[in-house]
Every structure is written in structure tokens, then in C-alpha cells.
Amino acid sequence: MANPYEVLGIPTNATDDQIKEAYRNLARMYQPQNFSDDFSRNEASKKMQELNDAYDTIIQLRQNTYSYSTGNEYDDVRRKINEGRLDDALTILEGIPFEKRDAQWHYLKGTIQQRRGWFNEAAINFEDAAKMEPGNREYREAYKNIKNTQQGQYREDRRGDNGGCSGCDVCSSLMCADCCCECMGGDLIRCC
Amino acid sequence: MFGYVRIYKPELKIKDYEIYKGFYCSLCKELGKNYGLPARMVLNYDFTFLALLQSALSEDCPGFKKSRCTFNPTKKCLKCSNEALKTAAAGAVIISYYKAIDNIADEKTVKKILAFFGKVLLKRAWKKARKNYPEIDSVIKETMTQQFKLEKENCKSIDMAAEPTANAMSIIFGEISENNSDLKRLGYCLGKYIYTIDAAADLADDYKRNRYNPYIPENMTEDKIREIRENAVKLLNFCISEAINSYKKLTVLRYADILENVLYDGLYFTMNDLLFNGGKENGKSL
Prior knowledge:
By secondary structure, chain A is mainly α. Helix content of chain A is about 75%, strand content about 0%. Chain A has 10 helices and no strands. In chain A, helix 4 packs antiparallel against helix 5 and helix 7 runs antiparallel to helix 8 (about 135-150).
């Protein structure tokens, strides 16, 4: 099929209004009713069909790129990430044109890269996401986690992992229990 | 002496230290027994860790026997022999053989001659290791090919440059565990750690001798070295953190304290020592 933009005689970055106007002008010219003989009328019909196809194609193309940023593609990406189909998720993301790559794009790319093990690139993408949309809690949390990891949070987590009860925990719990008991009129620990 | 995946001795219990040393000495013995005297030169900590990990996951407990060091008969040590040590020995031989070939191509004069001798001495050992563990050989051979290609293209993305090594370790760790995905990820993270810390530690040397290093930017100067290393630490911490997350999902039957010492302390202290302390602590032998 011929380039739809060429058929309508407009550049690819024409606005929606310019597209509509171009179509209307050409359609007015090629209305089959304008022509008296059969041959010309046939040709005009064919041209009208061509114009209609071109117009429909452009509208559909533009609607598809809009739906990328309204979230349909991103939902698909998230689903594929959860299923572990990282390559498929990445293919969808890479298909989104540069101009449409927003904070969510960077966040999802970072998520895929982290799963794959490309930690350096993942960190850069999480940072981009948080900076592009500072109000978004999901991206902010992700970026915060990355920074903590990079600074060695895992060592703190291990210390905290000792769990269980220390002597301090036992003593302070008993003191609290004694105070509560005394408030109610009893006395758990006679000497306190 | 060789290897980046080390214990942090000060935080190890004495019994655990003795066990770790037992594995180290047993690996030396395994290398000598199966691959000849020259093969003992390839003894390193990374493969000691591999043997320890595989033994920790295995149903069978290795039986340690009291013995003495072959080279220093006054030193006592514990020795054992199991499948894990055989695998680790083969891996160490194969990797060292390919590294020697790589060095022959890369290095100049003295190191080149040493590498040449290394290759000659290891060739017989390598052939035997390759026969017993063909999968490990093909993985490492493929890694070297990919690594060579990346270096020729002067790859400046650390993630991409580290990928062959990380992948190789992932596959090797998979080999010892019927492709357990958590173990594979642990292998991946350790492989990435090893490659990255090697690149960051060799930064000054590579810059001086005009050798490939993914961390050397176009406008490199001496004073950027510290800044680059501090950046590398972020990636290294990430590798350690993810390695730990994968480790936590494993069912470890023994040696957990030693493994955790390596993952939580060893990797961290090795990183700081090599990158900011000139490797003074790590130069000491076990």
C-alpha cells in the first residue's frame, strides 16, 4: 500500500486538523458525482477508496501510539514481567518511540534490567523515572531502594536479622507489664 | 592469594575457619592428585567457595580426616574428598588454562613468557579436565570468545562487559545443581562481582599500560580513579545484595555460617580493601 501521508499529500508530522482538512479537500475533488462519464466516475471511486483507506490508516496509527502512553502497552509489559517473560516485555518497551518514553517506561525498563542482572543500567533508569515524575510513589520507592542497596543496606539487614529476644526486651516487657498491672490494682513485681 | 570471593577471617568462628581451610587444602590435594603438580598452582578462593557451596547443598556430608600439608609438613590440616571438590578442581584448571592463552595474546614480555609456560604446563591437565567436564569447558571457551569480542569493540558499558563472566558462572552454578534458578542467579551475581572488582582494581594499571578496561572513559585522568572506583562500589554492592537474596532462597544443609561470612562480610571487605586500601589485607595468605 502506498504511504498514506503521501496519498493525502501531507507531511508525517501534520496535526490531526490538517489531516482532516486535506482529506476533506481531496474528497470534495474526487466525489464520483462530480464526473459525468462512467470511466472518470470509476476512476474517481477508486481514488475515493484510496483516500478513505489512507485516512483510516493514519487515524489508526495515531490512535495506537496514543494508547501506548495511556497504559495499555504498559499493562502488557507489567504482566509479562510478572510471568517472567522478560524478553517479550523488553520487545514491547523497545517498540515504543523515543518521544513517548515517559517515567513509567523508564521504571519498567529498570525493573526488567534488574531482573536480568544489569544492575548499573537498572539504577540509571530508576533514577530517570523518579526524576521525570517526582510525585509518583512507586518510582520514588524503587529509586530509594536502589540507592540503599548501592550503599550496602544488606549489611544492616543482617544485623537486624538476629531476631529473637534480648535481655533488654525481656526486662522492659516485664516493667511494662508490672506498670499495667499496678494501674489495674494488682502488682506483678513486688519490689518495683 | 588468588580469587575475589573470600572469607573475612576476623568474623569467622575458629571451627568454621578450620573447615574452610580444610576445603582449601583439600582442593589443593584434589588438583595435585588428578591433574599433576603444576595444577596446584591454580588453587584459588573462588573455586574453594564453589566446592563449599556445592557440599553445603549436598545430602552427603564430606568426612574430614586429619592430615598434613604436602608442601609444609609441619602444618596440620583437615582433608576430604567429594564430588564438589572434583568439579571445583576441574573448573579451576580449565579457567586458568584459557586465562593463560588470553594473557599470551594480551600481555607483553615477562608476563607473556610466564603465561606461555603456564599454558604448556597446564595443557595436559586441561585436556583431562575437559574430558571429564566437557560442559564446563565449552562454557568457559565461549565466555573467552565473547570477552575477546567485547574488548575489541572497546565496550564501555560495565553491564555488557561483565555479561560473559556473569553468564559463565551462572551456567557453572547451574551445572552443579540441576539448573536451580536461585543458584544460577547467585552464580550470575558472583560472576558479575568478580569481573567488576577485577576491572575496578586494575584500573590504574590498565590506564598506565593502555590496556582495555570498561571503566576507562575517553577523557581519563589519574584523579578520576577514585571517583570511578566509588561508582564501581555501587554496582558491587548491588551484586552482593542480589547474591544474598538468591542465597536466602536455597536450602543449605551445613556450613551456613561460612557461606554467610563470605557473602555478607568477605565480599564487602575484599571490595574495600582492594579498591581503597591497595589490597594490603588480601595479599596475606590464609
